[in-house]
Amino acid sequence: MAEKNRVGVTTFLTPSDREIVSIRVVNAPRRLVWDAWTKSEHLQQWVLGPDGWTMPVCTVDLRPGGAWHYGYRHRDGQEMHMRGVFQHIEPPERLVRTESWGCDWPETLNTLVLTEEAGLTTMTCTVLFATKEARDKALGVGMREGWSKSYDRLDRALADRL
Amino acid sequence: MTKGSQTLSATFAALADPTRLAILARLSRGPATVKELSAPFAMSGPAVSKHLRVLERTGLITRGREAQWRPCRLRAGPLKEVAEWAETYRRFWDASFQRLDGYLETLKTKERTHGREK
3-state DSSP: chain A helix, strand, coil percent, rounded to 5? Predict the structure, then answer.
């Protein structure tokens, strides 16, 4: 599986009905990638999703039980928040934290594992939904946003998984 | 648990198998018979039929009643739910990771210029 992962390509897997795993290889040493994931001045530069969003608020209390909060603003004025609590911190390798995207999004347990080989770092992010109900609630968000383009995406989603 | 969420769980279970994913990918291009669906796999007709029954039970496909051919068709409903959910998540992280690639280059350059901070 590892040889399939290349720089610049995100692999998404659904190993169980409660998990989503994304794997991405970046061309940088692990300690730098760890900093990019754990320091607010770095996070604000890249954890921004699709174009149009900025992250004016970014607080990171990096200790077990410490809270984190990303506050987003879209150029059209819309706001969005991601929050959670750090559970386990093992620099520069492993970061476990809870995550919630606001009232309609259920809390998940997210594990980031960084491995380094020949100067490249593989980031493996596992999102675990606590219950099937929680995951289904997440799906409810998508349903309200409308499905018009889903069918077009289906082909791509399936093709990428094969 | 609502009927919708039961469907969803079953959908995820059905999608967890590479053969079934391949069958769905084929059906997304149009209806096909069991024989046509079996062709790409080193698998007997009955083995493929077993996968088709799983997909049919989940509501991911429907099968015609026309004699022995019983062509299979994709039903979009349950897949739409999964695709949309995965898509929101995927869009967010894909865009972010792309940005991270560029940002790490900036960080590496900074380190080379200013030396590694202790």
Answer: 30, 40, 30
Domains of chain A: 2-161 (3.30.530.20)
Inspect the interface and report whether the beta carbons of A142 and B12 lie closer than 8 Å: no
Look up residue A140 and give its amino acid: G
- In chain B, the number of structural domains is 1
**Which of B1, B12, B92 is facing A50, going by the closest CB pair?**
B92
The pTM (predicted TM-score) of the whole model is 0.62
pLDDT of res. A105: 60
Q: What residues are paired with A95 via a beta bridge?
A: A89, A112
Cβ neighbours of residue A90 under 8 Å, at least 6 residues apart?
Answer: none
Sort out which chain A residues have CB atoms less than 8 A from B8's CB and list them. Answer: 17, 132, 135-136, 139
Domain containing residue B87 = 3-114
| CATH number for the domain harbouring residue B43 | 1.10.10.10
Residues of A in contact with B90 (CB under 8 A): 10, 12, 22, 157
Contact B92 A33 (CB under 8 A): no
Closest CA to A158 of B11, B93, B43: B11
Q: Where are the alpha helices (DSSP H) in chain B?
A: 3-15, 18-27, 34-38, 45-58, 76-114
Residues A32-88 pLDDT 10s: 999 999 999 999 999 998 889 999 999 999 999 999 999 999 999 988 888 999 999
Q: Does A154 touch chain B (CB under 8 A)?
A: yes
